[in-house]
Task: inverse folding
């Protein structure tokens, strides 16, 4: 291993005219250090190193333009957090309230454990859990013989039970792998081979005519079609919210806007964590922090992997646009760089979705969508509608995949710190694997804490929220007679009532920001993107929470919707003098005198 590593590093150093060093730790983890000219070089080298036999994983501390993915402790934030005293105490501390952290919290809530979930965002599902295409993959698009593959297939089979208990929208419609010409003839065959190795059930080749019967809005006839009926579709944020609410119902506590800045470890044993709001004491920390999981691991003194951010952009279209109801691979780009395939399908909510692409970046917080991202997305969907333009997109967004250089899930107890569990590298198909991941972590918790006692009153059922537009006219009339606010339609594009928004604000995980309301009830998700309903939603949030309008946020601390009232902003100003100066200024710009009519 060492000779191959040295040879590879020397080759990259010479080719890039850079000084790169590689150190092999006792645990077979390779640490890369040095300065490179571009991030592509650093990323490619780390991937190549990870493929060397017996390398456990790679820590990439290579620097590009003075920037790297190395964790740097924020000493000021740590000191401030410690000075704030104890925020909470628990048996289990879960870092991250995405679909993985929330799923683990819900799974562990069946036991007599005090559980705290810490999330640095102001709502659950702030990371990759909301920024994905919502597909519950069948398991034939992942590398065979990996933990990913195993948990993907297991998790897919478990989703039906999750959907029944938690009442989120769930459609098991299947997916297609298509071939149209000699350039992509291998796609269905590779998917079929991977599926057979991963034991994906019910896959079968179907005729092109059968495909066109199943997808009546598709008019281009493929040459070969592989159908995988076990694929399903959800909204990732809806699943996360349902899991979190059910966990709260069963005693778990969620602390939002609570960023972990350090992990307390004494003599190799976890004692708790430090947050920006104070200390949280506990005997077990579960690291489900998404793209930042490697930094949490470094805080605990057990980093053996680097998570390199891989950005993917997605475009959303109006529900009225025609297209397939099931996922299918899109048109292949001329180069396979910056893509993991991508494709087109219709979300569980009814919107056509195109993408994503895959671009390696250095900034874990870069959620921007670049013109070249949309070029790829629009190109991938050309197989459906070659006439579509960017102006047809009603929303686009980007998510960050939390990939390690072994390209597999990392789910294990720490080998060096007692009371610390890694749940890292959870990228696609993490959403599909989530139920199986939660069960696996449950087993690790039992190994760490010993046998657990079940609660007698654990309730796996989460009450289904009211979706007014899907009720029958009779049910709508009954509901409005009981509560007239359900008869006040606020969001016309999605037919969302005031009553639904008020319900979202008062649920177990309160929705008190614009985006939190959007994720609960779909208000502002229509064609106008909140242009009409925005002011009314602002008014409702302020009224129900007691916040001043300027205190209501879109998402995050620096995202105010309004900055204050006009009266407060211009208080003390002589409006008549201001108006006179304005008229004079406009007249001068038009080349007229102050006396002009």
Result:
């Amino acid at each position: 291993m060492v000779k191959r590593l040295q040879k590879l590093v020397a080759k990259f150093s010479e080719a890039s005219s850079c000084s790169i060093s590689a150190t092999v730790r006792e645990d077979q983890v390779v640490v890369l250090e040095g300065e490179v000219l571009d991030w592509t070089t650093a990323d490619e080298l780390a991937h190549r190193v990870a493929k060397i036999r017996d390398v456990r994983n790679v820590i990439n501390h290579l620097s590009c333009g003075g920037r790297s993915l190395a964790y740097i402790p924020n000493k000021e934030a740590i000191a401030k957090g410690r000075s704030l005293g104890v925020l909470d105490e628990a048996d289990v501390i879960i870092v991250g309230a995405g679909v993985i952290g929330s799923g683990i919290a819900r799974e562990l809530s069946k036991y007599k454990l005090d559980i705290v979930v810490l999330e640095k965002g102001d709502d659950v599902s702030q990371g990759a859990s909301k920024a994905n295409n919502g597909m519950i993959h069948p398991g034939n698009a992942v590398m065979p013989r990996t933990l990913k593959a195993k948990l993907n297939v297991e998790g897919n089979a478990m989703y039906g039970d999750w959907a029944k208990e938690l009442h989120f929208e769930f459609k098991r419609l299947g997916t297609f792998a298509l071939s149209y010409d000699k350039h992509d003839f291998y796609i269905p065959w590779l998917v079929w081979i991977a599926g057979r190795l991963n034991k994906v059930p019910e896959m079968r080749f179907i005729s092109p005519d059968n495909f066109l019967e199943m997808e009546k809005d598709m008019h281009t006839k493929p040459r070969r079609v592989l159908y995988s009926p076990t694929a399903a579709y959800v909204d990732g944020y809806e699943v996360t919210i349902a899991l979190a609410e059910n966990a709260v119902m069963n005693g778990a506590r969620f602390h939002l806007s609570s960023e972990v800045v350090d992990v307390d470890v004494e003599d190799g044993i976890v004692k708790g964590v430090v947050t920006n709001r104070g200390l949280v004491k506990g005997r077990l920390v579960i690291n489900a922090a998404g793209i930042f999981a490697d930094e949490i691991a470094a805080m605990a003194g057990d980093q053996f992997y680097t998570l390199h951010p891989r950005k993917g952009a997605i475009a959303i279209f109006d529900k009225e646009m025609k297209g397939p109801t099931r996922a299918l691979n899109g048109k292949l780009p001329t180069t396979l760089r910056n893509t993991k395939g991508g494709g087109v399908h219709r979300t569980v909510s009814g919107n056509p979705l195109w993408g994503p692409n895959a671009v390696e970046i250095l900034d874990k917080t870069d959620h921007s969508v670049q013109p070249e991202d949309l070029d790829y997305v629009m190109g991938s969907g050309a197989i459906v509608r070659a006439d579509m333009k960017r102006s047809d997109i009603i929303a686009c967004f980007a998510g960050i995949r939390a990939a390690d250089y072994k390209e597999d899930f990392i789910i294990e107890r720490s080998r060096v710190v007692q009371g610390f569990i890694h749940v890292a590298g959870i990228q696609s198909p993490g959403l599909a694997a989530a139920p199986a991941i939660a069960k696996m972590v449950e087993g690790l918790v039992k190994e760490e804490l010993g046998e657990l006692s079940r609660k007698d009153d654990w309730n796996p059922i989460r009450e289904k929220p009211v979706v007014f537009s899907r009720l029958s006219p009779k049910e709508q009339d009954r509901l409005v007679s009981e509560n007239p606010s359900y008869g006040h339609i606020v969001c016309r594009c999605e037919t969302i009532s005031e009553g639904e928004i008020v319900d979202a604000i008062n649920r177990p995980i309160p929705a008190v920001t614009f985006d939190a309301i959007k994720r609960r009830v779909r208000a502002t998700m229509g064609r106008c993107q909140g242009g009409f309903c925005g002011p009314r939603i602002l008014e409702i949030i302020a009224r129900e929470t007691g916040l001043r309008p300027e205190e209501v946020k879109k998402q995050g601390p620096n995202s105010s919707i309004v900055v204050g009232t006009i009266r407060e902003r211009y208080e003390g100003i002589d409006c008549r003098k201001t108006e006179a100066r304005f008229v004079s200024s406009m007249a001068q710009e038009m080349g007229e005198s102050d006396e002009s009519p």
